[in-house]
Amino acid sequence: MPHNRAEILLGITGKDFTIIAASKAAMRGATILKTTDDKTRALNKHTLLAFSGEAGDTVQFAEYIQRNAQLYSMRNESDLSPSALAHFVRGELATSLRSRKPYNVNLLMGGVDPITGKPSLYWLDYLASLAEVPYAAHGYAQYVFPEIRLERHNMNQWVWTGADLCFYRYYCLSILDKHHHPDITLHQGIKILTMCIDELKRRLPLDFKGMVVKAVKADGIVDIEFDDDKVVKCA
């Protein structure tokens, strides 16, 4: 399992776009190493990859995929579709998983098919699982915290007796499930993303230094100016 989970990845699809958001903080445990980290890589004009997981593995694997996608485009004078790239990445993860030193990375891949114009989002994890989804999260955005059970052993000592598996807290997936629909506009997608980020700020004792937000549309990948300090009154 990837060691570093103090990262946030979010993905949302809409009518003609896919939004990918990633936290800016590069962390090791409780230590912030960098406050302007970009956890995304453009694979081609219509596909964007976001990554989280073990430091070193993430950048190396993402740039390996990026270089192979660019090599294919140069050789064939055409870009792979988001679906083709997702299955290529899944194959590379599956091959790595069966080696002595597998990559410990979790990925979100978003894009828009240049022929059909259909947006897509793919969720991949370090076990080479692949799923096409309307919205997705990795790291603390989808993290579940079990209700911890403690019992008093004596006057000065508490003993951990397990975790109650009936009480899980999904921070963002419930908001996405409530507000997402296939025909949302880019403005509505940013609004839903703002709800998710505000919820994380309320619930987590963690400063993830804001979000890098990018949108993939039919005409390419664009950077979105995101207000990290905006407060949402109700989700």
Describe the structure.
The chain is α+β, with helices and mostly antiparallel strands and 235 residues long. The protein has a single domain, classed as Glutamine Phosphoribosylpyrophosphate, subunit 1, domain 1 (4-Layer Sandwich), CATH 3.60.20.10. Helix content is 26%, strand content 34%. The chain has four helices and 14 strands. It has helices at residues 57-76, 82-97, 173-179, 186-203, and strands at residues 8-13, 18-23, 26-28, 31-34, 40-44, 47-53, 105-112, 119-124, 130-132, 135-139, 147-154, 157-164, 211-217, 220-224. The strands form four sheets. A five-stranded antiparallel β-sheet has the order 10-1-2-13-14, with helices on one face. It has a five-stranded antiparallel β-sheet with strand order 5-6-7-8-9, with helices on one face. A hairpin with a 2-residue loop joins β3 (26-28) and β4. The longest helix is centred in the N-terminal third of the chain and has 20 residues, at 57-76. It is globular and about 45 Å long. The two termini are 31 Å apart. Residues 145-150 and 159-169 have low confidence and may be disordered.
